[in-house]
Specification:
The complex is a heterodimer of chains A (241) and B (596).
Chain A: H1 2-43, H2 48-51, H3 56-85, H4 110-115, H5 118-145, H6 151-179, H7 202-235
Helix pairs in contact in A: 1-6, 3-6, 3-7, 5-6, 5-7
Chain B: H1 9-50, E1 53-59, E2 65-70, E3 83-90, E4 103-104, E5 115-118, E6 128-135, E7 141-148, E8 159-168, E9 174-182, E10 196-204, E11 211-212, E12 220-227, E13 232-240, E14 253-255, H2 266-287, H3 290-296, H4 310-315, H5 318-325, H6 333-337, H7 340-343, H8 349-366, H9 374-378, H10 388-391, H11 421-429, E15 448-451, E16 457-459, H12 467-472, E17 488-489, E18 499-501, H13 507-512, E19 552-555, E20 561-563, H14 571-576, H15 588-594
Antiparallel strand pairs in B: 1-2, 2-5, 3-4, 3-6, 6-7, 8-9, 9-12, 10-11, 10-13, 13-14, 15-16, 17-18, 18-20, 19-20
Classes of the chains: A mainly alpha (241), B alpha+beta (596).
Membrane topology (chain B): Single-pass type I membrane protein
Organism (chain B): Gasterosteus aculeatus aculeatus
Protein name (chain B): Growth hormone receptor b
């Protein structure tokens, strides 16, 4: 009889836990939608039905969050790299070392930025994002070649690469939604700045990577600024002049 | 070696020379360092005097920036325009081979000397700036600086620093505040052009050490555990998210909350409470109120018979009690499976211990020792638990000869049998059967003089000298002074039989012992309430009350006593009833009639 009682108790306990889980699932199901749908939105570029469940505002917010995070992480990895590898005198001479950031025809002052249209803002961001997909991969391989590269930098670079891909998808969707344009022909016509066959020497490689990191940091800041300006224009709360 | 003997003058000299030789380079080194430091300090004082240099370029809002320089201590640059700032924006694609077009500072600040202000038109973000400090004729380059505008951002300090009191601790020594501020006006946070992170610092005014909080994006912050009665200084600064440098600190705000005596004195309360408690305890103990004592110090519960409520016995509710005792035995197995009452037999073994062993051995030896009995009786040693007495059915009554109902008609007069005469008698009665030997001791029987309605059985005091002892001894059943005689009813299938088992066996003994069935029955009173004048031979008494004693016919199977039915006709009609006696007790003969 005691055994039966114990069994009954156990089964009631199990029933309780099942009930609890069901209740939690019922309460939290909207979160499942909101958290999972944006990813689906970005991955499926043709899937309209799913993307309609997230508003354009929310998508823009998420895109901005991504850009902010990418900028912050890139800044951290750049300064870490500077501390680790670059001696002090060279820190300000990156541009004189022969490497400069590859730039795209993008406005560079606030006033210029404020003058360009929404369409141009989004396209600029997309261009920026796409221009960095490949170099980041190259940067990862280059960092792996170092003996003393801190794990942190390598991990951060990997993380940034992944986030950049999702950022691209998000921006594409935004363009499609906001500008009512079709899927863009993603042409990655870039200047072949990097020659993958030739492995540069250590010092050269270090300086090159340093340049890459600092340039990427700059471009990440650009992306963030453009997207925020776009958001400001969308909400029209402030006089985003 | 010179190490050992210092007294040797030659050794001493050599040692001194060695020491000097060792000291000399260190001395020289010290001198060298000293001179170097002297020259360095001298040169430091000299350098700023000669060369002007750019102290820094700072942007407050990522839209404009300023460059400042230091003229040094030389008098040759006191005139404005003696130093000129040139800059170039290296816009990609960088045309290094080409001619670099340098531009002069767009606006030399009027409010401050030695400062150049670059407005929005001349500020381009994400591009490299190169700034040079040259002399008036541009012949001499004094200083140069390279930067990106977004890297040199140092936001203005936050404004509108304000605090509100959150709460004060119970003791009144600490308090929490909520700090709030506004972002600097120059930073366009609303649009999102700049994302700021804030850092709060606070300290006790008297101390030099600032405490910091983590970076936060919010424009409010709570500070915990600031001390009352002390002036606290709070300030906040901010930096751009992803930026390197913090901006200037805001103006400090002084927070002061006076120390208040706490609303309720905790210590006084505690002391008061303790005193009250002590007073109450003292009162209770002194007054010896039973009720309070019972609450505070509950009494140790006394023994209980399982199934018998002692209150029932006290109140005289014999009917309820009988319901437990009576009835078919198979309905109440718990009553027969345990011997609770036996545990509470208070045996005085000290006086009887010797006698016990002697007599017992005598008795036991003379028995026809069946295997059932021998282990019990030979190995018997009485102890205070009383349980040991169960093994020998005679023995429970041994220390208490007075309550024992005599089974031999010879003893109706209350005479004590001589030792071992009884045993022979018993033996003679039924030789072939295992006997239940009556205890071979003096004062084995006494007459039940009275049975009270409350259930108490009064036994006639012994004529011997040991009256006090008899009355003093108690077999306790619950809290009874006089106990029911210890007769065990054999729980046969047929109900009560005429067989009596004088004594009880403890469960442990009985399992190994005599019978298969549990022999533990309940206590029965087998007597009627005779009056005191019935000390005479009850068999011959013409009085209607049944005689107190009956004759043991023999010992039946399972060590039960076979009793002869009473010859007195008077109780016969009473026998037919199930409850013949006024008190409802069944005598052994009555039981015999009840049985099938």
């Amino acid at each position: 009889m005691v055994l039966q009682k114990a069994k009954g108790h156990v089964s009631s306990c199990q029933a309780d836990t099942i009930m609890r889980r069901c209740v939690w699932a019922v309460l939290l199901w909207p979160n499942l939608l909101t958290s999972s749908v944006p990813l689906d939105c970005r991955q499926e570029q043709g899937g309209v039905s799913r993307c309609s469940s997230i508003s354009q505002e929310k998508l823009l917010d998420r895109v901005i969050q991504h850009a902010e995070l990418i900028y912050r992480v890139s800044e951290e990895s750049c300064s870490l790299y500077e501390e680790t590898f670059i001696p002090l005198p060279l820190q300000f001479q990156r541009n004189q070392a022969g490497y400069s950031c590859r730039t795209l025809p993008i406005p560079s002052s606030r006033s210029e930025v404020q003058q360009i249209s929404d369409k141009w803002l989004l396209h600029s961001v997309l261009m920026l994002v796409q221009s960095w997909l490949e170099p980041l991969v190259y940067l990862q391989t280059s960092l792996d070649r170092y003996d003393a590269a801190p794990e942190v930098i390598i991990n951060k670079t990997k993380w940034v690469s992944e986030k950049l891909i999702s950022l691209e998808q998000g921006v594409v969707v935004l363009i499609k939604e906001m500008l009512d344009e079709g899927l863009l022909n993603l042409n990655h016509s870039e200047e072949a700045l990097f020659q993958y066959d030739v492995q540069p020497e250590m010092v050269e490689s270090v300086m090159k990577d340093y340049t890459l990191l600092s340039c990427f940091k700059k471009d990440a800041h650009k992306m963030e600024a453009f997207l925020k300006l776009l958001k400001c224009r969308q909400t029209e709360i402030y006089n985003c002049s | 070696m010179c190490l050992i003997s210092v007294r040797n003058p030659r050794c001493l000299r050599s040692m001194l020379l060695h020491a000097m030789a060792a000291a000399l380079p260190t001395l020289l080194f010290c001198l060298h360092v000293f001179t170097l430091s002297a020259t360095e300090s001298a040169s430091q004082q000299v350098l700023p005097q000669i060369h002007p240099r750019i102290t820094g370029c700072v942007s407050a809002n990522t839209e404009t920036f300023r460059c400042r320089w230091n003229v040094g201590h030389s008098q040759s640059f006191s005139q404005p325009g003696d130093l000129r700032l040139f800059y170039i924006t290296i816009k990609p694609p960088a045309n290094f081979p080409g001619v670099e077009v340098w531009s002069e500072c767009p606006h030399y600040s009027t409010d401050r000397p030695n400062e150049c202000f670059f407005n929005q038109d001349h500020t381009s973000i994400w591009n490299t700036y190169s700034v040079q400090l040259r002399s008036r004729d541009q012949a001499t380059l004094y200083d140069e600086n390279l930067f990106h505008v977004e890297d040199i951002v140092q936001p203005d300090p936050p404004t509108g620093l304000n605090w509100t009191l959150l709460n004060v601790s119970l003791t009144g020594t600490h308090y929490d505040i909520m700090l709030s501020w506004k972002p600097p006006e120059s930073a366009d946070v609303g649009m999102g052009w700049m994302t700021l992170h804030y850092n709060v610092q606070y300290r006790n005014v008297e101390s030099d050490l600032w405490e910091q909080t983590d970076l936060g994006k919010e424009t409010h912050r709570s500070l915990y555990a600031l001390r009352t009665g002390v002036n606290n200084e709070v300030r906040v600064r901010c930096k751009m998210s992803g930026g390197k440098e913090f901006g200037e600190f805001s103006d400090s705000v002084f927070v002061h909350v006076p120390f208040k005596v706490s609303r309720f004195p905790v210590v006084a309360l505690l002391v008061f409470g303790a005193l009250c408690l002590v007073t109450i305890l003292m009162l209770v103990i002194i007054s010896k109120q039973e009720r309070f004592m019972a609450i505070l110090l509950p009494p140790v519960p006394g023994p209980k018979i399982r199934g018998i409520d002692s209150d029932l016995l006290k109140k005289g509710k014999l009917k309820e009690l009988k319901s437990i005792l009576g009835g078919p035995p198979f309905l109440r197995p718990e009553l027969y499976n345990h011997d609770p009452w036996v545990e509470f037999i208070d045996l005085d073994i000290e006086e009887h211990s010797d006698r016990l062993t002697d007599l017992d051995t005598d008795c036991l030896v003379e028995r026809s020792l069946s295997s059932n009995w021998s282990p019990l009786s030979i190995g018997f040693r009485d102890d205070d638990s009383g349980r040991a007495s169960c093994c020998d059915p005679d023995l429970p009554s041994d220390p208490e000869p007075s309550p024992f109902v005599p089974l031999i008609p010879n003893q109706t007069n209350g005479k004590e049998p001589t030792t071992c005469e009884l045993s022979s008698e018993v033996h003679g009665a039924a030789p072939g059967e295992p006997r239940l030997v009556a205890p071979c001791r003096e004062r084995l029987y006494t007459q039940v003089s009275d049975v009270r309605s409350s259930g108490k059985v009064l036994l006639s005091p012994e004529e011997q000298t040991e009256t006090g002892r008899d009355t003093g001894k108690d077999i306790v059943v619950g809290k009874e002074k006089k106990v029911l005689p210890l007769l065990v009813v054999n729980p046969d299938q047929g109900g009560y039989t005429s067989e009596l088992i004088a004594g009880k066996m403890s469960p442990t003994f009985s399992s190994g012992g005599v019978s298969e069935t549990r022999q533990t029955g309940e206590v029965l009173v087998s007597s009627e309430p005779p009056s005191r004048h019935q000390e005479s031979d009850p068999t011959a008494s013409p009085l209607p009350p049944a005689p107190v004693y009956t004759v043991v016919d023999g010992v039946g199977r399972q060590n039960s006593l076979l009793l002869t039915p009473n010859s007195v006709p008077a109780p016969q009609p009473a026998v037919t009833k199930i409850m013949p006696t006024p008190d409802g007790y069944l005598t052994p003969d009555l039981m015999g009639s009840v049985a099938p």
